Each structure stands twice: as structure tokens, then as C-alpha cells.
Amino acid sequence: MSTTLTNPQFYTTQYGANWEHLVQQQDSRLMEYCRLVTVRGKERTFNQIGKAAMVQITGRTEETVAVPGDYRKRWVRTLPYHDVRWFDEFDATFYGEVTEPDSDTVKSQAMAVARQCDQVGLDAFFGTNYEGELGTTAQAFATANVIANAGTNLNTAKLITAREKLSAAEAFSEGNADDALICVITANQVSALMNDLLFQNADHNTQRGLVEGQPTTWLGFKFIRTELLPKAANIRSCLAYVKSGAVLAKGDQTVDICRRKDRNNAIQVRTTVLLGATRIEEDKFVQIDCDETA
């Protein structure tokens, strides 16, 4: 006996044919505000000269005395990163009217590269760097340049202190675009600044951050927001730095789409990139610890 169906049982479902990317940081927030370099080989050095001091000449034809110079070498090393996806050789057929996701996968991988650029940079700027003849001498973040959370979130007072530390170290030259002051924060610190009375005062802040919903420039700092900043419990570490002191090394970025004979002719989509970063000088960086529960 045949089964009789009702009209609603013939209603159809229209399936999406295209692919949409879920929410994520899609671009590199830091690359524009770093000193971008290339590395030919596995590593690169930066030769540095410390400041000299003049000595008064006190007598005629006196003996010439040379003093040892302050010469240093900072290292940056790049490491390879990749993302690999496979698609079965019959996927294209079984997708039917659905667009094959290979091109959108390449876009997704490009976003991953952008985020990795920022992550590698932040890891290096907060972490241990290397100097010396062979690049084996570890250089930790300067503890004197860490502003304690003090039970408060980001506020004007902490930014003033950060700028004071950078100024006192002569870490930047006014008006030099390469010495732009950058402050990296998260959405939580954006909200904290929005609630800061000094920031709210239009007499102090001509950028009108409350109107834009995002602080742009305040106390000379260009604000960059990313959620990649390190956090321990309720303490978020933000970063104020001078652009010329932040080196980001980006090597070749390649995209390869090929058939894998060893995987039953599966299609492989692979993106690779070489990345590295380092602080050039400790005095060009200030860590601002913020209590996000305050």
C-alpha cells in the first residue's frame, strides 16, 4: 500500500551555496606599526652603538686616551608556520550546488597568517630576546619598565607614566614618524578609557574618542586594539612602545594548491610563512599591567 503524503511534506530546503567566515581578527593590527624587515637566511643581526661621552682636553699636546666603545648586536630569527587542509577528490561532486571551499580556505589561511604576525610580534616584545656575538645571550624584558596593575585598569595616570618612562630614556624623537608611540590594548581597556574622566573631557581630548567609540590618539599614543595580548587570571598586560624599536621579520608567504597522489588524489591547500620578531632596545618598551576586574 502506497504512503500518502501531505503538502507540507513536499516543502523544500534551500541550502547555502557560498561560505561565510566566522568572527575573527582578519588583519594584522601590528604590522603597520612595526619596523618590517626581511631575513635572508635563518637569522639576521642588528649592529648597535651606544652613546659616547665627550672628555675635556685639559692640557696642550697631552696624551691621547681612547675609551672602549659600547658596541652590541641584537638578533632576530624566523621560524616557519603553515596551515594545511585536505579535500577528497570526490568532494567537488558531492558538494553539488555548493561552491567548493578551496578559495575561501585560502582566504581563511591569509587571516591566520595576519594573526600569527601579531602573535609572534607580541610574544617577542614581551618575551626573551637574544644578543651578543652568537645571539646566545638572553635579554629579558626590563623589570623597571613594567607598570604594576595596582588594582586598576588602564587609565590616564598609567599612560602618563608610560610616556614618562619612554621620554626619560630618550627612546623617541618628537616629530619622527619612525618613532611613533604605539599603545596596544584590548576591548576591555577601550571601555576603561571611555570611562576615564580625563579622557571624556573634550577640553583634553580633541580626538573625541567617545564619538568614535574607539580611542585613536591620546597623550601622543596611537592606540591599536587586539585581543591577542597576554592575560594571567584577571591581569592583562598591555604594551606601550616606540615603533622604531619593534622589529617584525616576515619572510616568504606561499600558497600551494595541489593533488596529493599519496592521499588518493586529494586536493591539498597549504599556506606557509616565515615569521620572527625582536625588541631592538629594552628602553623602547613599557609593559602596562591592567586589572580587568577593577
Overview of the molecule:
The chain has one domain: Alpha-Beta Complex (phage-related protein like fold), CATH 3.90.1690. Strands 7, 8, 9, 10, 11, 12 and 15 form a seven-stranded mixed β-sheet that branches. The longest helix has 25 residues. The protein is built from six helices and 15 strands. The chain is flat and about 120 Å long. Helices cover 20% and strands 31% of the residues.
**What is the name of the CATH class?**
Alpha Beta
CATH topology: phage-related protein like fold
N/C terminus separation: 72 Å
Q: Biggest sheet, open or closed, and with what strands and sense?
A: 7 strands, mixed
Tally of domains: 1
Beta-strand proportion:
25-35%
Structural class given helices, strands, pairing? alpha+beta
Named at the architecture level, the CATH assignment is Alpha-Beta Complex
State mean pLDDT (0 to 100 scale): 94
Specify Rg, calculated over alpha carbons.
Answer: 26 Å
User: If helices are DSSP runs of H or I spanning 4 or more residues, what is the number of helices?
Assistant: 6
Q: Can you write the helix and strand succession as a string? A: EEEEHHEEEHEHHHEEEEEEE
Shape: flat
- The low-pLDDT segments are none
Strand tally is 15
How helix-rich are the residues, as a percent range? Answer: 10-25%
